[in-house]
User: Fold these one by one.
Assistant:
Number 1:
Amino acid sequence: MHTIAVDAMGGDFGPQPIVEGVVLALKKSKQKFNVLLVGKSSEIAYKIPKKFQKFIEIIECDDVFSMNESATDALKRKESTIYKAIELVREGRAEAVVSAGHSGATMSLATLRIGRVKGVSRPAIATLMPTATGGRSLVLDVGANVDCKSEHLFEFGIMGHAYAKDVLGVENPRIGMLSNGEEKSKGTEITKEAHELLKVHPSFIGNVEGSDIFNDSVDVVVCDGFVGNILLKTSEGVASSISKLIKMNIKRSPSALTGALLMRRVFKLLKKQIDYAEYGGAPLIGVKDCTIICHGKSNKIAIKNAIFQAVSFIETDINKDIEESLVKYRSN
Amino acid sequence: MHTIAVDAMGGDFGPQPIVEGVVLALKKSKQKFNVLLVGKSSEIAYKIPKKFQKFIEIIECDDVFSMNESATDALKRKESTIYKAIELVREGRAEAVVSAGHSGATMSLATLRIGRVKGVSRPAIATLMPTATGGRSLVLDVGANVDCKSEHLFEFGIMGHAYAKDVLGVENPRIGMLSNGEEKSKGTEITKEAHELLKVHPSFIGNVEGSDIFNDSVDVVVCDGFVGNILLKTSEGVASSISKLIKMNIKRSPSALTGALLMRRVFKLLKKQIDYAEYGGAPLIGVKDCTIICHGKSNKIAIKNAIFQAVSFIETDINKDIEESLVKYRSN
């Protein structure tokens, strides 16, 4: 039986979607895990249906690390829900933590309090992107590793490969270095160096371009956190922009409106295919235990899926795989 | 009367769409310009309808700089169509050059043979992106300036502002620094330095995120050519991916297919709104004359629009504006 610590208070919408997500996960899980729910019991307890109470223990805590605070202050806030949730993992009371709170705080607390996998200099946040055939690719880092050295990008490649293989179950995941062209000569000084470092890995396929993320030609896309954040937000911007343009154009024509009604199920399916909530949260890879970082605006579906991600993660030997692969493929 | 030099042979599809685009532009222009068409007359002349022949002079040339060659070899290929087209501008026989050939070669030849505007260290390629309300924003650099210093990003901001104001006619265009968060503290060491340099410009609004490109909150988005290329290709990937997912889902249901037929005009309008061809080519900004770089796969519409872009460009004082603004806003 696994135990997952969940920060019940950190999300943008308070404890409601978090508790509902936990209950939804328990409903579907056939009792594979227990939850340590960190938050204010007066706001949480009454939301838990009786039959699930035995799987959930509330860890009393009412200080929330707010989204406006600076991640650098997180270490001092020992009474906050995110700090306490991470301590539960550090103390061995839980195997994983799921949080929709301040992602910078979660990342730095997990890195500093739980500690890094041997050989990892910077843990990375990975995110799944949908492809045009309904598949997916893993992009990392999309987190706070802004100014990266080639060595960090090399590590992201190794960690992404391990996550794709061990947790997502992709056979021989292909690693690509995100660049401004497929040719080896393309890239920044740093990505070109990282390209050389990753070349020793049998699954490295060389440079890939932004469009390759969506065409099933690569499984693990390596970039620094600056580029990763921009590509993530750009993708969200394009998708939301297309959806707004369709809605705006539909309003101008009654026949198009009828058409849109007939296509309702297609749009619903499309939304499901490109909706981040369906993918749950983003794993922080390279930390000794499992940390899943959810979007602040996560709904109950996203939280449910994040909990399942955490369960898949801890049922694998991913961290051992990362440690061994780093030794095996790192240049001297 | 303006004169535009056009590389007739450099595109992926040979002279056909180029010549058709030139004719289309002449048809719509009410004789505002002449064209010097650089290419092999035996492949070009018969495609020009008689009534337009007086506006087009063919400059005989049959060596094409191929897409597989390295831009660094372009200077040696003095008999190539792109070299000759750029020489026509350098010699003052034409005021602008339009090319769908090798973009790196075009960029380096224009920079080296025509020369840079005073104060510009690196010319940049700018591209227009559609926004959710049918507006547009200008992103630069999307070209070959991969490893940039803060000073280069500062110049891109000034050049983009001049293009948006003078050529696109945007009143008080807002300049934003593309970053991984809106806060001033976000960014790489280099974007943070560039942020400080641009602060003196009254139109600088600070950091913007990837999603802001599409929500009308900024007019000129500054980034290096590595990030610019990735965001461009990512946007194309998302748009094409959504279109494929819609098509795939439609096929599974007869009612959705009927719906799609009723929505045909909406999809057509959407395609027009997000189609790069509607925007023509990408201006190379910071070179003494006007250079418009078109997509290798440009159709006749894209070529027509690129020619109109060139005409708008040369009818303004953009290069004087850039030169003066660089002096005015550059820190000592």
Number 2:
Amino acid sequence: MALPKLHNFPEEHLTKEQVSALEDSARRARVTALTMVTAAKSGHPGGAFSSMEMFMTVYGVADLTPENCSGINRDYVVVSHGHTSAGVYAALSEWGFIDRDEVMAHFRNCGSAFQGHIEREVPGIDWGTGNLGQGLSAGAGFAIAQRANGHKGRVYVLMGDGGQTKGQIAEARRTAVKEGLTGLVALIDWNDIQLSGKRLDIMPCNIKALWEADGWEAVEVDGHSFTALYDALKAAGTHGKPTVLLCKTIMGKNGGIMEGVADYHGKPPAVEAYNDIVKGLGEDPAVLTKAQERRKTPPTYKGRKIGYPPAPVIETGTPFDYEGAKVMDNRGAFGKALADVGKLNYKKEGRTPIVVFDCDLAPSVMTGAFRKECPDNYIQSGIQEHNVATMSGTASIAGVVSLWAEFGVFGIDEVYNQQRLNDINLAGNKTVLTHVGLDVGEDGKTHQCIDYVGLLNNTFGWKLVVPVDPNQTDRATRWMLKTPGDICMAVGRSKIDGLKEFAGSYEFEYGKAVKLRTGKNGSIFALGYTAQIALKAAEIADVSVYAVSCPLAPDMDALKEAAKAGPIVTLEDHNVNTGMGAVMILEAARQGIALPKVKTLGVNHYGASGTSDQVRAEMGLTPDKIAEAFKE
Amino acid sequence: MALPKLHNFPEEHLTKEQVSALEDSARRARVTALTMVTAAKSGHPGGAFSSMEMFMTVYGVADLTPENCSGINRDYVVVSHGHTSAGVYAALSEWGFIDRDEVMAHFRNCGSAFQGHIEREVPGIDWGTGNLGQGLSAGAGFAIAQRANGHKGRVYVLMGDGGQTKGQIAEARRTAVKEGLTGLVALIDWNDIQLSGKRLDIMPCNIKALWEADGWEAVEVDGHSFTALYDALKAAGTHGKPTVLLCKTIMGKNGGIMEGVADYHGKPPAVEAYNDIVKGLGEDPAVLTKAQERRKTPPTYKGRKIGYPPAPVIETGTPFDYEGAKVMDNRGAFGKALADVGKLNYKKEGRTPIVVFDCDLAPSVMTGAFRKECPDNYIQSGIQEHNVATMSGTASIAGVVSLWAEFGVFGIDEVYNQQRLNDINLAGNKTVLTHVGLDVGEDGKTHQCIDYVGLLNNTFGWKLVVPVDPNQTDRATRWMLKTPGDICMAVGRSKIDGLKEFAGSYEFEYGKAVKLRTGKNGSIFALGYTAQIALKAAEIADVSVYAVSCPLAPDMDALKEAAKAGPIVTLEDHNVNTGMGAVMILEAARQGIALPKVKTLGVNHYGASGTSDQVRAEMGLTPDKIAEAFKE
């Protein structure tokens, strides 16, 4: 029986024949899912079975097909409980996204697209998940991008019930309501069982009351009834609120001995049990033998190719020049460049929208001017950084330039895992960290972000730019906005000098150190604004100064040159164990570059609270002390 | 007028005289706070003024005094909105914890204890905060420790209203209700203004409904009335639920032009405005001049000395030996040792309680045996990792051994900032990361924790142990439980060999590499269980093998020895850019140790999904490939 075409709800209600076809399909999909986990000897069958009708219905009604799933103006589907991958893949195979035999054979097999938790390489998967709590934020990000692009689509987010306790979900709920994202539809697989037992034994959580308290329309639905799911999904969003469907389900539904048993949350059944369940579902258990046989040869299907979103269509305008001593703070130069580019492109036909996220810090992170120029593309999200980190990620793969400006400790320390998942998902969002290093002096040690290099160095994709002065900040901002990939820019709070080397016709080039001074007695490699301190030290010690603004892409030509010219000091307003100096030294060792004596200067304990100058002095990062390092 | 003694609520209600004394004190405290921020030219007066009666009352009624504040069996006070430090310090000076003139002069001055956000060095401050959302979790951790120690005390948590949107608060609320922490009392400074404007414009949040939905007793109180605050605090917890006081207040209350103005959330007034406000509060503005004068000389008061909690009083029993091939997984060895030590000490007179936290993963992280032995000290907290990371931190400074076992990506990636704040606070908690590295193969790239060394290397205090085999795991577990400080242990999932080098009389020594094999053609330094792979490679290449289990404390003697003996390969199931190899190479460069050619092997891209062996092979981490590295 062929599956009916249900995209965008062509029917008032499902017909009997349609329900019958869907049920037949769900029955087969359960066999698919169970065969996957049994052949792979690992996986999560319980939730795959309980969510099956939800998966089948959502992928049926969504404007998301094998043909349009890699484009942008369409519906999005986020499955937050990514461990139910077997169920998701099974439903996708029913709807023609992927091949059933291939996924049954190569689920969780090295080299296949079918990872243990869902990933974007599989067509129909819009976001790689499994770290619970992030899915609704992912959906909100997609919905915001749809709105910015003028596309009236829907975003479906499927979740488990156990993960409803994650705080980030509440943050996403509030943003969805504030932004009026009525096209955002959440579905909760409410089976009351989680990995280690019954939900109410593990951590009680008043699911319905919490969604309602945050302003959502909460509707209870039989999560195994296609009729009920179809009707509820069709009606979603018609009350002027985002809607959540509380789908009452049974863990392991139609899975024989697995039904209602927590143990099968994360474990395949034994082979005899497998046989019984599959027979109960009306299929020949030989399907497993076939899958096991096929698994002996390597997977042929690698999934679709996922890359960063393409370069946006925007104009980046003409850089501003800043001249003189203490002329501007880097955060200010960023804010001005952002507003300038924003204005140039705002609501212009054919341009990629630029969306800026804020967490109650616009006056400090300097996004106020952008808000004024581009009010509809400025998203005030309150003190909810986890939510924003994820939203910023998904928005960026849905047709907008997505930028979040935030204090360093909140934009990376607090949300490291969200930014890691943005990296894995090749999101291409832009994060601007302000108030980094000891330059947020008075706020004290809990607010000094001294680890942004070290944190992003753990990822494989993030680029990081730490500008030296306002001129370079301006140019790097414009470069960042039009460049694909996840890019972080880290800027300080204090007013600093505008350097002529980065003004006028200077163009920012990622990975290139800029030699600011040539001296006789050695070299300083200085990160970002500390190059300005290094220049003063260099006057005393008569050494060269290389200004580094891309600590994760060390300029090895510059280092080789310096290595021949005497001792080297690295200088950074960052943890000295994990920053620019550490990256350079590691790369030199790998390349077999013999380094002279190297002294690494930076933050070697938690900072004091005082003016930036005071705090740096306490840390030994004054021109005098830096110059002294060459005497040793 | 002397302040009344109010500890533990000696009065039915406050008398008129008592209220009058408190009001007089609050008036003076406002002058104190305003003088602080004006002398420091930075700080947050608005919230300091709106929370003033809350601070004064809580520090009045709490069983927390200058005399007992560094002990453990007492009440605890957590101020989550740590940016209101000026108000907190002012109240503490009224209650005799600190000297008024000193704090007015040296607030946010380098070298003083009075950081911009509150820190534990100031007597009366139980937790350094300011990163919003963590305070209630901190309080829950203290309350759990009190309970484990049989102390029927109270924990007061003060919060702002803007930060109510942080998801972690909801997690803490649920834990408090599930654990029946009726001694936990929350107070919200509900002034409806936050940094960049009105609360309802920034992010609406139905505060009362959310606390009630999570099962708290929510009581509205006039936050500027001592009478109302005293009565409400006294009644808290008497309905069998934790209680939150929704304290209606006015931002900048009694601060003249600052009243109700968002701009003064984070900015001191100009000097004329200062004068007017202070005169309005009945004091001579000359107090500012005096403070400014005193500020010219360095601060004399450094605060109390804060260190890690002392070594617990526990017995650690006799280590278990594991012999043979694939005899045990390290997580299993950890679980057995933990349960053994738990049983030895459970409810024994005079012993320090051992409390274990779980986030719905006991069957995977192997804390089930401990739960069986020590049911009352096992805290099931559901999928709420941010909350648990903070609770585990505060519990550890309140008289218990506090241990949290968790999957790597959730125990450190997801909660990096909470663990960073545990470090800043010198918490001394123990985190056991299971399923680290590619050893969680099938779960795929979102679940492979390949950055735990790199993340903890950003902190200054965390120790990290990555055991080589089940024998070392057992011994390191017992060592960890009795050793002061924040300690992380990272273990894999697969069964591995028990090595004789770590059995019998072997004692774990932090920072010492163990030479497992001597060869002719060079050396492998291998992290944790990869030493077992290295041994196979070493047979092929005839090289030495050093097993490293403390990547953050490189054994430089071993490295010097190896440096003389030929090429070096570093091997780790970790991001190759930020792991053990990077730490060793940096330290060698600093010490001027000339290294031979070094090849760093490890994880250099996100992993595949498959068996651990498959995934390691795809990453090039097989004995053959490792041996080949010596040919180059």
